[in-house]
Design goal:
- The protein has about 270 residues and is an alpha/beta fold.
- The chain is about 40% helix and about 5% strand.
- A 4-stranded parallel sheet has the order 2-1-3-4, with helices on both faces.
- Helix 2 links the parallel strand 1 and strand 2.
């Protein structure tokens, strides 16, 4: 049993002892970006940190230091947003995970709180490492790993889930109510379009069109929300959170008990 699930709060000897019995570690990655007027800038990172810590405690799994910033150029229309270049995020996560593999961590779970935007750079990083080292690496995104429960408790109309919308607002109302202001939540559901969908729960054909700073601010009605956070509740956030944590606990146990890895290559990132 570690003194803390956070890697940075332990001594090197603690980590050495941990690695004698367990090879799994969680790496939380988020973003600091606008989340409309009712949620804090650090929403994605706050969620990744809290979920990673809770899962770590339930499974006695170490959690790497958090990565607060991600790839968020489309949110730069709103003050306070910080974005990395995609290649910077790829290199950052690559170097962190390569360091962990070098020390003997063979099963790494990236916990991504920033949904779609962070995924391309993260996928590149872990695919390179998988091919180079043979280590097991995966990305667990709270939105996708709790997809079924989110569909069950969703109450907004089609198009009501997007950014700073129903699901992440409910989650934040449960996790960090003191950082939220429900009185400033507003509805901004886009008109239905045959291809352009912001709500992943809306089924149908779709295309990807990147947003630039100006068009995103316009589409977010100068508020920063896409969807309907006005229907969000702390109660639904709690249901969602517990289902999410349960699924992640199962993922960690799967890594611990069933994943067999033979690391081929360990190198210090230079």
């Amino acid at each position: 049993m570690m003194k803390s699930v956070w890697l940075q709060e332990n001594k090197w000897e603690d980590v050495e002892g941990y690695l004698q019995n367990k090879k799994t570690i969680i790496v939380p990655v988020g973003s600091v970006e606008q989340h409309a007027k009712h949620l804090p800038l650090g929403t994605d990172s706050f969620v990744a940190l809290r979920v990673a810590e809770e899962v770590g405690q339930k499974t006695n799994t170490l959690v790497a230091p958090p990565n607060w910033v991600g790839w968020a150029p489309h949110h730069m229309a709103f003050p306070g947003t910080i974005t990395l270049r995609p290649e910077t995020l790829t290199n950052l996560v690559y170097d962190i995970c390569k360091s962990l593999v070098y020390h003997g961590f063979e099963k790494i779970i990236i916990l991504n709180g920033h949904r779609e935007a962070n995924l391309p750079p993260l996928k590149i990083a872990i695919t390179k490492l998988r091919n180079e080292t043979g280590a097991f690496l995966s990305i667990a995104d709270p939105f996708y790993i709790a997809d079924q429960i989110a569909r069950e408790i969703k109450v907004s109309e089609p198009g009501g889930v997007g950014h700073a919308a129903e699901m992440e607002t409910s989650h934040m109302y449960y996790l960090y109510p003191d950082l939220c202001d429900p009185s400033k939540a507003v509805k901004n559901v886009h008109n239905k379009h045959p291809f352009l969908q912001h709500d992943p729960f809306v089924e149908g054909d779709a295309v990807f069109v990147p947003s630039d700073v100006g068009t995103y601010r316009e589409g977010a009605k100068n508020i920063g929300v896409v969807g309907d956070p006005t229907v969000s509740t702390k109660e639904n956030g709690e249901i969602y959170h517990h289902a999410l944590v349960k699924n992640l606990v199962e993922l960690v146990r799967y890594c611990d008990e069933e994943v067999t890895v033979e690391v081929r290559k360990r190198e210090i990132p230079l």
